[in-house]
Amino acid sequence: MLVRLSIKNYALIDEIDIQFGGGLNIITGETGAGKSIILGALSLILGQRSESKYFYNQEKKCVIEGYFDIQHYDIRDFFDKYDLDYEPQTIIRREIYHEGKSRAFINDTPIKLNLLKSLSEKLIAIHSQHATLEVNTQAFQLLSIDSVAENKKLLQEFQDAYHHFLQVDNEYQTLSQQNTQLQTEMDYHQFLFDELQTADLNAEEQHQLEEEQSLLSHAEDIKRSLQQANYLLDEQDQSSLSLLKQGLQQLQQVEQLFPKLGELSGRLNSSLIELKDISNEISLLDSETTVDAERMQYLEDRLSLIYKLQQKHQVDDIRSLLRIQEELDEKINAVMLNDERLGELTEERSKAYKQSQELGKKLTESRLAAIPLIEESIKSSLAEVGMPHSIFKIKLSSFPDEKLKKSGRDEVVFLFSANKGQEPQSVSKVASGGELSRLMLAIKSLIAKTSALPTIIFDEIDTGISGDVAVKVGELMRDLTDNLQVIAITHLPQIASQGIHHFKVYKKQQDSRTLTNIRLLDHEDRVNELAQMLGGKDLSETAVLHARELLNLHMKN
């Protein structure tokens, strides 16, 4: 439960410290005194987003701390799950800076806002006069039934199964759409792939083919030059080799007479040998160089195919064509792999849907079993708060065609009639403000009995009621404290008188500024506060006596 709330530098609050107790805590104060400011500060440590414009002093940070006694509540697993330090008295702190930044802490460990919200949902529920409208929503109505039916574990199992089904179904739908598109393009991709595969391309062949084509296209010129060179070197009467051979013979004849010629004779002999070798190679190249029309045609046809494929696929080399061939092969294989995966997903999807349906049916059965208990309990509570002839019915029906939602396979309608002889209709159509407040309180009371929520806050939900009905509403709130801590912000003395701890919110002037403050009232202060709520600021003896009677009645009970 909430044992302490510390607020510093928020709205009209400079610094206050509220020590709450167990049971029914009452907060009263004149309109505009700042009761909603305190609730607004509390909402910040429950995860609501902040705005720096609400600072009392823009030069300081705003700090709000809530101290919660959680030792009797089964939420230690939450701390273990998120690696948080568990303390029997857990402190939640929110720090907000004037530039708009904020930080949140659980037992001095920095956390993100969504984690703060997750924890606060396990600690406090705030019900305001505007929240009575949520009684018309499917979410709240199903939550009410599931809370009484103790469906938390079953609902979680269903939602896990349903989430798994949605994941599988999403993958199935996505893959199916992709496959449909791939199947549409399959024939064309297969044609392109077959065309490239038939071409039997080699990454290096284009350069080689182009070189060979160039060679063959000039074969006659090349052959003519080779033959002429060889003729000049070795075949004509006065060929180069013949003349060199004669020169070498002349040097060799006088070499013994003139030793210095030995070196020149050797060099000339080497040149002769080199030229003979060149002549032989020229002859060999001449013999290898042929005018091959058939080969030339093959080269032209092959290069024409390569150029055509490159133009078709808008690339400049064979390597790019080979990459395209691989991509086409992958797309073709993807269709076959998709077909296989789709088969697996079909089976998995069917199993996940079946499991979701089975858990959904169990959820429906559990809800149906709880409805009579809920209807009887609400009827009894409404009778206690001055609506003895009211009728409350719950209509639960399953979706058609085995439809599922996150909440299950059911839709629900709360039917209500406040007056005898009036046919029950949807709550939104027949309930007035006061009736709606009492109905909501009756539902919240029932939920509180079956939940482990430590604290519930009622923010002026007594709109539209007074007199004996207000007394009954106060008694109903007090009865809730058997299971949880209740904090009620009220303007009705009949409700305020039933609190164990009574706080008054008030404004005061300090240094030309208006401050909101709060204090715990003692017995006599409570008498005066209740008397003012009954008769105004000018306390009459009658109002004071009435206030004492209200307090004494509560103390006797």
UniProtKB/TrEMBL annotation:
Highest taxon listed in the record's lineage: Bacteria
Q: Which UniProt keywords apply?
A: ATP-binding, Coiled coil, DNA damage, DNA repair, Nucleotide-binding
Q: Which Pfam families match?
A: SMC_N
What are the RecF/RecN/SMC N-terminal domain coordinates in residue numbering?
2-511
InterPro entries per the UniProt record, alphabetical: DNA_recomb/repair_RecN, P-loop_NTPase, RecF/RecN/SMC_N
Keyword DNA repair (UniProt):
yes
Q: Which residues form a coiled coil?
A: 202-229
Similarity remark? Belongs to the RecN family.
Could you tell me what this protein does?
A: May be involved in recombinational repair of damaged DNA.
User: Entry's NCBIfam families?
Assistant: recN
Q: Which PANTHER family match?
A: DNA REPAIR PROTEIN RECN
What's the protein name? DNA repair protein RecN
Top-level taxonomy: Bacteria, Pseudomonadati, Bacteroidota, Sphingobacteriia, Sphingobacteriales
